[in-house]
Amino acid sequence: MNKCIVLISATEKESRAILKTLRRIKDKSLALPVYQGKIGKTNIIYIISGIGKTNAAYAATLLIEKFSPSAVINFGIGGAYPSANLRAGDIAIADREIYGDEGLWLKDGFHKADAIGIPLLKKGRKKYFNEFPLDKNLVKKAIKVISPNPPLLKGGRGDYRIESGAFITVSTVTGTDRRAREIEKRFNAICENMEGAAVAHVCAMYGIPMLEIRGISNIVEDRDRSKWDIKTAAENCQRAVLVFLKEGKI
């Protein structure tokens, strides 16, 4: 097929607006739900990966190998760290993805993966430990295009924010305010998720540009699901992705 963009999200809840324009690919070799179609003038291949690093890495590898996309967009919901100045319904765009769990525990606490001395990925002279930068041009374009355009749901607040910064990918979701503040201070991060760094890792392997957009469902603090707004976060994120695909000219 002609040049395409791969979309990856973890769950069906994060996919409903996207799926209105796409159709399921009937291919028994595809172990996960994969959809194909156009959004605006852009050819799209979309996969629902399931949650977590392994599912996300497999999904990214599967579609990169099969379809050779020009870019990958990972999207979905995420939690905002306390100092990020984001609230439920806001949009976060990653400028880099960081593995938050990979590293070394010593008597004085956690050390990043470079303390082990073996990179997670080595490509040419570049060594990747915890951190994987995302494509600067895609990030700039997303901020420029999404900010004035999307008809985002406002959740009764009357406004919304779009922020860009470091995202943290974890296997163990943070459920205390104390832990959240430790992580955001250690990595200077704005958003927590369970998949992004794994997708960024695979994209770095293949040299594929990547963008990550997330709708904020909650603040990462002492866990209280009654304060979350998953519906608005998922819908706003998809609307932002749709605007970017239609207006971004990628």
What does this molecule look like?
The protein has a domain at 75-247: Rossmann fold (3-Layer(aba) Sandwich). The protein is an alpha/beta fold and 250 residues long. Strands 5-13-12-6-14 form a five-stranded mixed beta barrel, surrounded by four helices. Strands 7-8 form a two-stranded antiparallel sheet. A hairpin with a 2-residue loop joins β9 and β10. The chain has six helices and 14 strands. α2 (53-67) runs parallel beside α5 and α3 crosses α6 (230-247).
Please give the structural blueprint.
Layout: E1 4-9, H1 16-19, E2 22-24, E3 34-39, E4 42-48, H2 53-67, E5 71-80, E6 91-99, E7 103-106, E8 109-112, E9 121-123, E10 126-128, E11 131-133, H3 136-146, E12 162-169, H4 177-187, E13 189-193, H5 196-206, E14 210-219, H6 230-247
Parallel strand pairs: 1-4, 1-5, 5-14, 6-12, 12-13
Antiparallel strand pairs: 2-3, 3-4, 5-13, 6-11, 6-14, 7-8, 9-10
Helix pairs in contact: 2-5, 3-6
Keywords:
single chain; 250 residues; alpha/beta; Rossmann fold; 5-stranded mixed β-barrel; two-stranded antiparallel sheet; 6 helices; 28% helix; 32% strand
Total beta strand runs = 14
Strand order of the largest sheet: 5-13-12-6-14
The percent range for helix content is 25-40%
Q: What general form does the structure show?
A: globular
